[in-house]
Amino acid sequence: MSDDEFLAHEFDTHRTRLRAVAYRVLGTYGDADDAVQEAWLRLAGVDRDSIDNLGGWLTTVVSRICLDMLRSRRTRAEDELDSDDAPLAAVMEEPEFVAVHDDSVTNALLVVLDRLGPAERLAFVLHDLFGVPFEQIAAVIERAPDATRQLASRARRRVREADVSSARKQQRSAVSAFLRASRSGDLAGLLTVLDPQIELRADRVAVAAAAAAPGGAPEIDSSLHGVHAVAAAFQGRAAGAELALIDGVIGAVYAPDGRVLSTIAARVRDGHIVRFDVCADQETIALMRIEILGRP
């Protein structure tokens, strides 16, 4: 086995964990795969002998890539630390404070992730979900370990206090309005429910198959930005789409005969859809938790 083959084999042993980390931080499988691929490219360009712990090195690199990707998104600015967070830190560091593997907590996390600042989000996910030490996270976000611990504490409190039911109602209302407007060709309705700066990402399988998919699926590019571009892609389409819960997030699926061919995960903020992630890759869809809710 050549050195390159050995390195590829070693990378593959960490790929599943790296993808899980990236997905929990970024919230979409497409972005997660991009982050993992970028980590592989960076690994190929460094001196292997300089890496003592490949797993730790890769986790740090993927984390930094994810942080850069979060900061590049059109999300609201990260808040300053609240002055009353510090007294809560000791209590919130208890491992049993949040049962991170419980489905209800996981879904709450998915609902509130987009409301967390990039560094806050990264600190919480890496520490609480994957057990990365605060000292390692601090180096990634370029803050002191105590400040990093405080960021995770605040995020943990937001997850614990998240009103999942209310957030889901808002998501469902926005996505339902989108589907109705899309089916009827109501451009004004689409412009009302879509955020002016909406972003759409689609995997290559979705781009290739969208026009031929059952139910008049939208013709899309791999990346669209802005309300007019996204509205034009969906106007008069989505006739076969059904409302669905996708990894805890309200969205839509094309599922003729009950088999999911593609998914459209939506991110909703303040009643408007700010992001769509379209996936038709069957291996990725197989990893998703999907509950079809029917036509709105």
Give a verbal description of the structure.
This protein has 296 residues and is an alpha+beta fold. Helix content is 54%, strand content 15%. The chain is built from 13 helices and 7 strands. It has a 7-stranded mixed sheet. It is globular. The model is unreliable at 75-105 (pLDDT under 50).
Helix content: 40-55%
Q: Please tell me the overall pLDDT.
A: 79
Point out poorly predicted stretches: 75-105
Main sheet summary: 7 strands, mixed
Which structural class fits the helix and strand makeup? alpha+beta
Rg, rounded, reads 20 Å
Beta strands, count: 7
Core attributes:
alpha+beta; seven-stranded mixed sheet; 7 strands; globular
How would you sum up this structure in a few lines?
With 296 residues, the protein is α+β, with helices and mostly antiparallel strands.
Helix and strand topology:
Elements lengths: L2 H24 L2 H16 L9 H19 L16 H4 L10 H10 L5 H13 L3 H8 L3 H17 L2 H21 L2 H7 E9 L1 H6 L13 E3 L1 H8 L6 E6 L2 E6 L7 E8 L2 E8 L2 H6 L2 E5 L2
Parallel strand pairs: 1-6
Antiparallel strand pairs: 1-2, 3-4, 3-7, 4-5, 5-6
Helix pairs in contact: 1-2, 1-3, 2-3, 3-6, 3-7, 6-7, 6-8, 7-8, 9-10
